[in-house]
Amino acid sequence: MGKENFTTNRLALEEILVRQFRVLQEMIELTKKERASLLNDPNQVLTVVEDKEALLDHLGVLEDKCRKIVQDLSLAVELRSEDTSIQSLLPFFQPDEAYRIKNLSEGISSLASQARELTRANQALALSKLDWLKATQAFLISIFQPEAGYRSPKGGSASQEPAGLGVEIRV
Fold first, then answer.
1. What is the pLDDT of residues 96-115, one digit of tens each?
2. Which of 20, 40, 16 minimizes the C-alpha distance to 28?
3. CATH 3.40.50 for domain 2-127
């Protein structure tokens, strides 16, 4: 029974890793789409971000399942460690199984790293666009605000609040 359970868990681990790999590939594609949206179609950004959030939620569920399977496998081989990991289980698998699982694990790590880098680049782009918008807003507001000490030709005082022309100032 123990060997069957171990094999079942190993197969489940491999399946979860494949699913994580595919979800991360989707995440990278969405992150690239997000970048294109930031540059060319701001109306699409929110949809892409929502899709990314759904993928992240799914990835979190997969990671939880993976952690549970790794823990079950560790218990099955009596590997008692606080930091059980896929790497620590590799010696207990057949060489071809260990090779596949190791490659999947490394691929997931590589894709996660690539997704983080793309996300950081998108964040920098979004912040740059936001700074540009703030500067543009400040410039446009400054056009409509009277200069300091300005006195209206109709006899108003310099301390009066400017009309504002319906422009709201946000900082």
1. 999 999 999 999 999 999 99
2. 20
3. no
